[in-house]
Two-component system LytT family sensor kinase (Nocardioides albertanoniae), 371 residues
Amino acid sequence: MRRWLRNRSGTHLGTEADRATFRTLHNASLASPALRGGLTVDSAERAAPHLQALLAAPALAITDTDGLLAWEGIGTHHQDRAAKLAEATLDRGATRFYDRVDLECGQAGCPLHSAVVSPLVVDDHLVGTLQAYAPDTSAMMVRATDEIATWVSGQLELAELDASRRRLMEAEVRALRAQISPHFIYNSLGAIASFVRTDPERARELLLEFADFTRYSFRTHGEYTTLAEELRSVERYLLLEQARFGERLSVKLSVAPEVLPIAVPFLCLQPLVENAVRHGLADAEAGHISIRAADSGTECVIEVEDDGAGEDPEKVRNALAGGADSVGLGNVDARLRNAYGDDYGLVVETARGAGTKVILRIPKFAPGVHP
């Protein structure tokens, strides 16, 4: 019977095959985080020792299409030849074996007599090579190098997907910033100007709030922020709108303190609140807006509700699909789905003359999501 426990002296109890499997998986897990950073000098240098251990090769090299990125092991005098072997392999587009003649090694006593070079492929594009050097080459080493190069290519493809997702998120935030209403900026400054003579202190406070709001909205770092920071920006926005509308606009906030540190997509609430202000005061003498954030087990539930004119549900569906001019609704929905999955899109409850409620569910913890 197999024994899977560790004895008190620290000796592993299991078969040699079990231990070999563990070592393989362990080295792969150590190489993976570096490779998820893409194919760079830094990522190659960090991954190379673990890939060398996976192959049990005396030396290993990683190149891109321009040249050597990392060398690990003995025979560093072969580094200059690595780029030539990469070029020859990439021209062929398949794993190749090279002997001592190909290596052009003139150093007496050098134990590296052969190399296996496999291409690295990302999205059907050749991006580099993985090279294993040894005294001699077996069919097993050729196969192992080819298999590990395929695994490395998979990690690099995941890195490219991560980078593409980040670029998409950044583009969506830039688009959202571009939609921040110029009328809001003009009207806010107009409201501030109206207090300059009658209430200079309030004008000063509003001007500072406006500066903080624009500084936050146009910041250039980070896809995510905390719910506390997002709500603080929303409060600044509402203070400026209340300065403009006076008693016509009333706001109620109800926020559970325990959800304030939760990470949320940057600018996920402000567009929803802006819509609520627009709809809540459209053709109305007064509008009421409520913002609630509650703890719900592993999630935070956020609701933005107005008692305004409401909207045609079909138009809302079109907006969520990105086909309408509703400020940011489709944008926020897409970013929530990208961050947390399709189960976490916006839920909108509305009808003509019945007001609008927008509901967000935010997981308290999600991979890759942090402020």
